[in-house]
Specification:
By secondary structure, this protein is α/β, with parallel strands linked by helices. It has three domains: 33 residues, no CATH class; 274 residues, SET domain (Beta-clip-like); 31 residues, no CATH class. Helices cover 17% and strands 19% of the residues. A five-stranded mixed β-sheet has the order 1-7-8-17-14. It has a four-stranded mixed β-sheet with strand order 3-10-12-11. The protein is globular. The structure holds S-adenosylmethionine.
Amino acid sequence: MESATRQHFFSHIPGNEGFETGKRHCHWCQIRSFQTHEQYPITIVNDRDDEVLSPKFSFVETSIRARDVEPTRKEFLSGCECVDGEDCQYNTCNCLQDVEDDSSDEEGADGTYGETYRKKAYAYHSHGVKAGRMRSEILSTRNPIYECHESCACGPDCPNRVVERGRKIPLQIFRTPNRGWGVRSTSDIKRGQFIDKYMGEIITAEEADRRRAKSHIAQRKDVYLFALDKFSDPDSFDERLRGAPLEVDGEFMSGPSRFVNHSCEPNLRIFARVGDHADKHIHDLAFFAVRDIPRGEELTFDYVDGVDDSEKDALDPEKQKDMTRCLCGSKRCRGYLW
Ligand SMILES: C[S@@+](CC[C@H](N)C(=O)[O-])C[C@H]1O[C@@H](n2cnc3c(N)ncnc32)[C@H](O)[C@@H]1O
């Protein structure tokens, strides 16, 4: 048993002095208060050493908006009008994203071939054993996912509300031999299955920069900061998408996915997930499995997802000195995290 949990059981007793404060800072109390605790618990185990999770860290079930981050006003939100949730996988659903499809080699109505068509991207399988899992065509892309949401006419059982319905697997935070804490599941996971969201404090770009500057090693702070920049566009008509994006800081407040380590050959991928189209600047970050993962295998994702210069830098002995060595152990390891 992880010693923080042990402390809960043996010294964290109602009536004892400091009980209320103790309870607030107790990781076990925090994860036990999650709505999904009975069905999909989070556990913490350490079979290797005496290390405990930092007392500065708290588990939260949802992200927390900083005071200066405004939610979208209700009158700007608009959902689909699908009366039957089944309709939310078809072209008529307003929530799905329009994508260009130039893969068609079918003859068009006017007799031409190879035209670009507009179609709607529905991210999930809706029937059979794969229901609720991400479709392969989407899983291999970096496309955002558009889901139905609170302003939609469809109900909570709509097949296009996978991330909204939340985590459906138990997660275990465990002590790895060489990379601090890591995460695994005690259940088998299927390719395309939703794992969890990356949670944290949603802060402005200016606040993120202040925190980077305050952090002992700025690069270390970057590990926990995720920019919500999937839709950033200097030419957007939405001014919130033109400027520097909001960021999610998971260092001190987050869920279990904050402990997921990097691998150069990962089994998870992170996707931007949008509810309302008016909320693109505050999109979710959702982890999905890119292959079947047997229970007990460590969950990992690629921290840079192929988009940085570290491979080039790793060849330069001068730059290597400032780089973090990757210990993912995969055959395709690039050698450095960044
Ligand atoms: C987001 S945290 C992941 C949880 C972390 N292991 C912990 O104990 O809190 C990222 C940090 O984990 C470590 N880490 C993650 N993946 C790694 C890897 N493949 N090789 C070496 N260190 C890694 C690095 O110290 C990195 O700064």
